[in-house]
Amino acid sequence: MTSRLLFVHAHPDDETLATGGTMAHYAARPDVEVTLVTCTLGEQGEVIPPELAQLEAGQADQLGGYRIGELALACAALGVTDHRFLGGAGRWRDTGMALAGHGTRAALPEVLHPRAFAHPDAFADEVDALVEILEELRPAAVVTYAADGGYGHPDHVRAHDITVAAVGRVPSRLFHVVTPRGDLEKGIAELAGHVVPPLRLPEPDELPSVPDELVTTRVDVSAHRAARVAAMRAHATQVLVQSDGTDGPVVYSVSNLVAQPFTEVESFVAASGTVTAPHDLLAEGA
Q1: Which of 82, 144, 217, 243 has CB 3.0 to 4.6 Å from 251, enough for a Cys bridge?
Q2: Is residue 278 part of a domain?
Q3: Residues 53, 101: contact at Cβ < 8 Å?
Q4: What pLDDT, in 10s, does the model give residues 234-251?
Q5: What distance in Å separates the CA atoms of residue 60 and residue 56, rounded to the nearest whole number?
Q6: Buried (b) or exposed (e) across 181-202, using 16+ Cβ within 10 A?
Q7: The domain containing residue 39 runs over which residues?
Q8: The domain that contains 85 carries what CATH number?
Q9: Sign of the dihedral defined by the CA atoms of residues 38, 136, 166, 170, in that order
């Protein structure tokens, strides 16, 4: 019997950075079908390669279309063959973010585009669009962000909110992807001595995490390192891979040039009422 696992992410590259290993893990299983729903084209992203900087929203505003191609390459690397844009490609626009205090915390911009994904008027239509997908696929489990979106990005928070609302109408086991504090600290320690400029090590508490005891499910994704690195390289406008792990740890960053740990386990918190085995998002257990 085939099971369906559905991932809901805000922008292209989020699927790879947050759950790329888990997606590859389940996509490789013959008894599981993996679906990715991406909510925006990531139009407001900051471009890392200087030769592509003109794609940004403040210039040619062509980044969203370019990232469709990056996402297709990343999905191919991860083995994901069923991908959908929520409401169709470009239906809702990347909201962008404002910096909010220390580290990578983000907040809602003061001015919103009329089609912004996090626009208050868009919520009901976004839920309806996701409900339509849930009714079609009837997944055994759904994965998205925790309530704070991981680091506060308004589109991540909105993805969480619409997923919770949609699962309330079309019930499924629901999980939130998180970074346990212990894994984060261990990963940062392993990066020491392997990060070179322009990247830098994160400062204390700069990267978001949750207490280890909140984690309910941990998926070993160590067999999929090469696929994950290939998927990160596919998102070249957004992700800089400084080392692929051939000699030492994988070293990568997003546009802030803060090196981030690359863990061999991806972690999740089961939503209230979800019953799961501790190492499998699809298996029911104690």
Answers
A1: 243
A2: no
A3: no
A4: 999 999 999 999 999 999
A5: 6
A6: bebbeebbebbeebbeeebeeb
A7: 3-179+209-223+264-270
A8: 3.40.50.10320
A9: negative
